Q: What sequence folds into this?
């Protein structure tokens, strides 16, 4: 081989024994950390979020370079496919609350404004519906329930879970779409008992409830569409529980809250509040 390439044997053996350059060692380290974060988030992070994680570790690198390295490694984050089932029944004569929230999604304190919605979860054993309640300040899912029927009990139990977990004060704005479950007499009475102010989206305007719809889109992209359909309802519950409670709330970084997870942001928010009060 040396003769064909016109290279001396001594030069070849010297090359074999030479140590990698500083640039090569740095790239190897970056590739190792990219691979770690990609698999640690179960293939859910693309180059923007992985770049952020690397910078938190003290590795200064551009998003473009991370994207190139991910292509070299053959790493690609989950990509969603489009599938939508109608979950809003607004064709009813029940009372409709005014749009109090009015797309004011920026809130300065937790437990001042919650948004909620229902989404369909495909399962081979039968249909499932997920009701979620999201805090607009921390972006944390403060309550959720997964049932096989899209009834008022589904949304009531999700609301009860959120209320008992966070114990919000009087006057919290509770925003939903115009679905019959949220407009029902039972639900309106529960909001009154919890001293919450009801707010509903305008008819046919999905942007009025964009934050919770965005969460459901993320959940489907990162958990459901990139995995085979759930075989059983118990498997669906276990996987969604694991995603919401352990990944989304506690681990997944969110650009709207300074690239922190909802739980970390809530904790840092509480520390800042205590310092101001002291």
A:
């Amino acid at each position: 081989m040396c003769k064909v390439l016109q290279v001396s044997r001594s030069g070849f053996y010297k090359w074999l024994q030479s140590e990698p350059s500083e640039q090569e060692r740095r790239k190897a380290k970056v590739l190792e950390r990219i691979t770690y974060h990609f698999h640690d988030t179960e293939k859910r992070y693309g180059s923007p979020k992985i770049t952020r994680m690397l910078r938190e570790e003290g590795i200064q690198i551009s998003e473009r370079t991370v994207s190139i390295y991910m292509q070299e490694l053959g790493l690609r984050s989950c990509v969603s496919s489009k599938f939508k089932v109608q979950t809003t029944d607004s064709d009813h004569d029940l009372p409709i609350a005014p749009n109090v929230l009015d797309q004011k999604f920026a809130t300065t304190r937790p437990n001042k404004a919650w948004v909620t919605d229902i989404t369909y979860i495909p399962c081979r054993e039968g249909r499932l519906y997920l009701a979620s309640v999201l805090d607009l300040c921390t972006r944390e899912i403060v309550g959720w329930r997964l049932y096989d029927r899209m009834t008022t009990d589904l949304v009531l139990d999700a609301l009860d879970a959120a209320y008992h977990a966070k114990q919000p004060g009087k006057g919290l704005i509770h925003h939903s779409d115009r679905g019959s479950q949220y407009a029902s007499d039972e639900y309106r009475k529960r909001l009154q008992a919890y001293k919450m102010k009801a707010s509903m989206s305008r008819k046919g305007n999905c942007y009025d409830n964009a934050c919770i719809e965005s969460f459901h889109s993320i959940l489907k992209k990162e958990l459901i569409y990139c995995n085979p359909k759930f075989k059983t309802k118990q498997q669906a519950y276990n996987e969604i529980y694991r995603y919401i409670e352990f990944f989304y709330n506690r681990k997944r970084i969110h650009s709207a809250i300074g690239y922190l997870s909802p739980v970390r942001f809530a904790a840092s928010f509480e520390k800042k509040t205590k310092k101001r009060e002291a």
About this structure: Residues 118 and 131 are 4 Å apart (CA to CA). DSSP finds eleven helices and five strands in the chain. The mean pLDDT is 88.
